[in-house]
Amino acid sequence: MTPxxxxxxxxxxALMLPLAGAQAHPLAPALLELRAVGDGHFDVRWQxxxxxxxxxxxxxxxxxxxxxxxxxxxxLLEAQQAVELRWQIRCDAPLIGQRLAVRGxxxxxxxxxxxxxDREGRTTQALxxxxxxxxxxxxxxxxxxxxxxxxxxxxxHLLFGPDHLAFVVGLFFLVNGFAxxxxxxxxxTAAFTVGHSVTLALSVLGIVRLSPALAxxxxxxxxxxxxxxxxxxRGQASAALVHGRRAALATFAFGxxxxxxxxxxxxxxxxPETAMIPALAAFNIGxxxxxxxxxxxxxxxxxxxxxxxxQDPRRPVTVTAAYAVGSxxxxxxxxxxxxxxxxxxLIG
Length: 348
Known about the structure:
elongated, 17% strand, 2 domains, 52% helix, 10 helices, alpha+beta
């Protein structure tokens, strides 16, 4: 490796270093769920991810007409890595037209998903953030509104999920950007898309289940694989690689694993009972849009590099990206495999 390439590797790795400590799915927003159980009575569930920064803790704000009628019960959800509070309230007035809010979103840096199940079986949902920390309960929830919310969640999950994003970056450089034309990039992207779409649907609908810990470990190993494959490239001779069936099949298989990761995040949020299929489809579309946005941004950045800096401007950047992606994948693999291993003392 030349000193110039090593320099860019170190620079790129330094920029990517903050992601190394990131957990698998920083999406996990806070969840406020209200479920009608009787005349004016609601079961309340407040869930807060343990993966989020602890500099501040958001709190739910219910209408003044609603008062608690039971004590709060707390439990630790190890599978979701979250803490959950449950209690029951009684509301002296209908919730339609009133506001549900979450206090402290700006200070905590997280979003909050609000889910309301009424007595008629309808579900109303809204994603709150620092700029919109409250929602007004509508008379009837719109399917299009639900799809917009879940589409936004899927888009955010891809772009701000460091492990999924690292794999997409690796796929982009596996075909050397657009150096070999659009077709091989579409082949690899389509293989990944089909793979994660299949397991996302099957897992969310309860047809396929896999331990979340195993799925996360497999996702990390897939990132190591894609980084290794990028390093095996050698200029135009690697065109056969990106057209090869084995690479496409491997990408499809790893897409199956990433779909299980997407499904885990979606199950944590929950799907509306009256709009399950539209919400699932919108979430998957949001993932695809996030994937296309990442690829488009990488293409623009690669095209903007000054050609005078390199004899072949793509080669140093490709090697740098391969080392960065592979190193992140190795870090996550070790961390997640250690979490799977039984607690056996190393000394004594």
